[in-house]
Structures are given as C-alpha cells and as structure tokens.
Amino acid sequence: MSVKVYVDGQAGTTGLKIIDRLNGREDIELLKIADEDRHNNDARAAMMAQADFTFLCLPDAAAIEAVGLANGKTRILDASTAHRTDPAWAYGFPELEPSFREKIVGSAQVAVPGCYASGFLSIVHPLVAHGLIPADFPVFAFATSGYSGAGKNAIAVYEGADKPTEYDSPRQYALSQHHKHLPEMQKFAGLTNKPMFEPIVCDYYSGMVVSVPIQTRMLDKKISLAQVNETLAAHYEGAKLVSVNALMTDEEQGKFFLASNGLSGQNKLEIFTFGNDDQILLCARLDNLGKGASGAAVQCLNIMMGIDETTGLI
C-alpha cells in the first residue's frame, strides 16, 4: 500500500531532488501540481488535503503560510529554516539522540536540518553531550560548499556564460555573523553562546565539509585526539548514514587531502578527526543536497512511515 506525498516547491533545487529520490518507489504516490497552479493557494491546499505527507521546499515566509494552508490535514516535513528551532516541531536529525528519532516517528511536523547545521551538529553535539567540551566553550566553525545550495539565481550565475571573475574563487559570506543556520547550530549543539561561523561557497556543484578546530589548552580538562575519535565513534555506533573514520597517523594525515565534493550525490555523512592532542581539527563531509537537504528529508519521511530509514537512499 502506498502513501501519497506532495512536494510544495517542486521546482526548486531541494524539491527536485526529493522528487528524484521518491520517483519509482512503489510505496510512494507522488502528487504533482500543475505548473500554472504552483502559486494558487486553493490548489496547493487541495493537494495538501489529499497528501499523507507534504514537503515544504519554500522560503521561510512561504513555508509558514503553507502550514496554515495545510490546516493539520497532512503530516509536514519543512526544509526551510522557518520551524527548525520551534519546540513544537521535531528536529529531523535522528542520529543525534534517540529522543530526536522518537519524536520524528510520531510527529505531525518535522523540521529538516540545514546543510551547514547538519555537519556542525554531527561534530559538536556529541562533544557537548559527552562532556568533552563545556556548553560555554567558544566554538568556531568554517565550511566549504558547492554552489548548488545557494539557490536558483546563484546557480544560474555560476553556470552561465557571463560568470563574473570573482565567482572562480572561493567566496566567504555571512561575514556579519548572522547566518540563518546559527540559531539551530547553537540550540541543538547545546551551546550557551552562538558559535562563530565562516561559510565559503566555491565553484563546484555539490558537497561540503564543515570544520571545527579545538585548541585543547583552552579547556579546563585535557582531552586527547583518540578520546574524541572514540567518543564520536561510540555516539554513532549503528548509524546507517553517519560514519566516523578511524584515526590517521601523522604520516597519513600529511599526505591526505580532504575534498569537499567527496560525497556529492550521496546521502551519507562522514566524520574525520585530524591533528593532535594539542590542536584537534574535526571535519564533517556530506552532500549539501543529500544528507544536508533532500536526503535528510526522505530519511525523515521513511522514519515517519515506519520503514527502513535508508529506503531509496543507499
């Protein structure tokens, strides 16, 4: 028996990727709205009323409006930023804590994590939860990302014949420290203070690495690189879409290059522990359109349906 699924925002990058991941599944009936009705609220509300599950792949204000249109008639998975820190919504990162997974199972409203937040939280949440760093630790993170997460207009510039010269270079942005993912990064990491975050968009299509450096001399108690690696590995033991790589020797690290597009097109997230006992560098690699967006959304759908969470993803 199939369930009915509607994607509100089916023409956007995330919406298209969700549809691509659901197409061909015998347990899913995709409801498609006519192109001319995509901005017709009555038509959208009618589609939601038919659907068992609705994905919202919309700007924040439109997503908030869409919840009103749904009027409780469909279970919602919101891929916008709008509801990620709302306590009434389940947060869609089931590997972080068993309680997160339990809330997703029975929730009528699930907020799909942001791509940068997914990488950041995969590292920092376990460190705080297991007492390796205190909640008030001054956390800094930087990230390199492909341009596919920048939206349709930016994609058109990157792929256009008249691409400006500066688009050939990695470009730092959100320099005012008000990036839209920061509230969920702080909340679900369990941090007392907002982390500093430096995102960098680069001239390749998809994939990202989120990195968190830790100067251990700033901690009240000593931690080791091996201890951090073991803690992360134990935290994600049994996870199907999150993995923690084994420690490398100094010689292996010296020869290694961490490419940000290494998981492009996949729905997994992998964690690396680099450096030494004095200076630890933690990195999470994922596809910003996979585990960072549409892949995470489909994973949450699978959990809500009560089936294997990796269905259609690996």
Structure description:
- The chain is an alpha/beta fold.
- It folds into two domains: 3-112 and 292-305, 3-Layer(aba) Sandwich (Rossmann fold), CATH 3.40.50; 115-288, Dihydrodipicolinate Reductase, domain 2 (2-Layer Sandwich).
- Helices cover 33% and strands 21% of the residues.
- The protein contains ten helices and 13 strands.
- It has helices at residues 13-22, 41-50, 60-70, 98-106, 115-129, 152-158, 182-189, 225-235, 250-255, 290-305; strands at residues 3-8, 28-31, 53-56, 75-78, 90-91, 109-111, 140-146, 171-172, 196-202, 208-215, 242-244, 269-275, 279-286.
- The strands form two sheets. The chain has a seven-stranded mixed sheet. It has a six-stranded parallel sheet with strand order 2-1-3-4-6-5, with helices on both faces.
- The relative contact order is 0.15.
Descriptive keywords:
alpha/beta; 10 helices; globular; seven-stranded mixed sheet; single chain; six-stranded parallel sheet; Rossmann fold; 21% strand; Dihydrodipicolinate Reductase, domain 2; 2 domains; 314 residues
